[in-house]
Amino acid sequence: MIEVSEIRKQFGEVRAVDGLSFKVAEGEIFGLLGPNGAGKTTTISMLSGLLAPDSGTITVAGMDASRGDRRVRALMGVIPQEIALYEELSGRENLHFWGGLYGLTGAALKRETDRVLDMVDLTDRADDQVGKYSGGMKRRINLCAGLIHSPKIILLDEPTLGIDPQARIKILDIVKKEAESGTTIIYTTHYLEEAEELCDRIAIIDKGAIHAEGSLAELVDLVGEEDMITVTGDFKSWKGDNLPEGVRLDHMEEGSLRFYISRKDSLGSLLNSFFGAGISVESVSIREPGLQGVFLKLTGRELRD
Amino acid sequence: MNTILRIFILDLKRRMKSPLAIVLTMCIPLVMTLIIGSVFGRDGDVKLPRIKMLFVDYDEGLAAQFLRRGLELGQLAEMVEVIPVVEEEGERLMAEGEASAMVVIPDSFTTKIVDGVPVTIRVVKNPSESFLPIIVEEIISTFGVILDCGTNTFREPIRKSKEILTDEGWPSLNELQTLMDEAKAIFALAGGYMVDTLLTVEESTVSEAGDEGNGKSSGFNVFSYVMAGSMLIGLLFTSNIMLRDIVRERASGTLTRTLAAPLSIWHVVAGKLLAAYMVTMVASIALLIIGRFVFGMDLGGPVVLAVHLSATIFMITGLMTFCFGLIKSERAAEAIVSVLIIVISLLGGGMIPISQMGEAFRVIARFSPVYWASDGFMKIFLNQAGLIDIVQNIVILTGIGLVTLLPGTWLLGRNLRKGGSK
Asked: Global pTM?
């Protein structure tokens, strides 16, 4: 359905997207997981035809989407990161406007407006001014505005940013239902749990480039079966030699050490070696393999950094 | 076309739901017109207070009486209140600021006038007042010139009559007959100048070409005079509010979302410009209706008014489009466009009518688009001008509109394209 090949975009000296390539099949939820500034929004802007890539190609449903072809845009529903609504108008008036831009008129426009309002449980408040809505309600109408014309492809750019858990659950639920009905979805987020819960395949993106791509299981396999152990304490007198078997030092900084262990019983040996050397240990944390570990291993930093 | 209409209707609907900014903007010309108009009165006449003139008469002769009675006659009496005082009391009243000026007629004033001896009238002015003491000084100077001319013209009969009157006994009929004949001869000689004057001044209202065309003339209404310029400020700011919305929408993300829909960027530009034109037009019509019914303005012929209004709003929309084609942020709009509006309004007669400006500013004003708009409105409101009379204004306004709208639209489109992604 979507094929992105070697796209690049530079703003002045900043290389926002640097040779990105991926494919998304019809009906698939494809996640772009990365921290702020990773290039996710720029990628979405290029996919939606708002920005032309400096180089590379984007093909959507067999059509060149690099130059913002209107036929391609008609297939898409874009849900931007910000609340892109007219606050002085009601939710219903907003939806009528956005639906109208995609060619919906008359009874069809009314029917689709009612459908999406019902979907997000906002029928009762549909005629209130958007400016009077709560943050979560605005997010839900923001979602509706991108879904009103029943697009074949939905581009969601961090749709749950800054909302309460209830509204987040609602939005994720809607996205899942859309995917079940055969809609292709590209979902950008920096919330690991969202990517894990929703996406069929995930691309880990940082500094404009994809570091890894695959299903959750495939990505976890990349870091192997090792658990990540973080130990904090006073390690001034620690020499760093004679590590127990199955323990690998990954990162060391003042007051904190990070290890990967392939055998669970190695943790006891590691801690005993600290106690034997008279080192005072303050805390020990264990993280089993997951997207956070994958991200850390691939980019060398935590997703929240 | 359908998409343009949707964007146009959306902007109108949004403005109707949130009209405060436009309403406040429209208050600018109304308040300006009300204040300036109230200061000068509906007919533009400045009503000065009656001037209090203290009159100290050490002479008490014929010439002093002539001067005082002259001040108490006709229109002068309405303008000047003559208060006879002794000098000490006059000085006290002046010190208390109770009068505008004190006129002191010296001793032997009449005798010296008759004898042709130079004599001085003293005018003491109140320093706390600016114009009124000057008016007193001018009035007294004028009387001085009249007395001077009179005594010089009738010097010989006056001299003889003085001799006759100072001789002992009654003058003979022969002496009186000779004196009367001489005076009569001088009157006859001067009569050609004094009675049947060569120069006639006829009072009339100055009118421009419009009167010649239709033969109509309207009374002067100072509100029309002020509103012709001040409404331009309101309309420029109204258009500014409408087009500034593009910058706001770029920041809020609604523009990005609109551009993600299957439409051309020119649909968005056209929809926004049409909405700006329409809202500015509605604002101007509202201002004119208020002007007509609140300020009693004569709006001239409907056709000429409609054509000039259309050309003016076309110019305003073009100018604002060009500005917002160059401007990318709301902060820049705030700093640049607002200042630009004030400057071109000030130079073009939007704040102070052009006729009240100095010669140099009248020349500079022609470089401000506001001048051509306000000049046209003034001709329509005050002189009932027809289309032919303001054809130059209409052509220039349309020209400015085209010259700014075409590149402005291109720049705005380019800006929107870039603004599609933030």
From this structure: 0.68
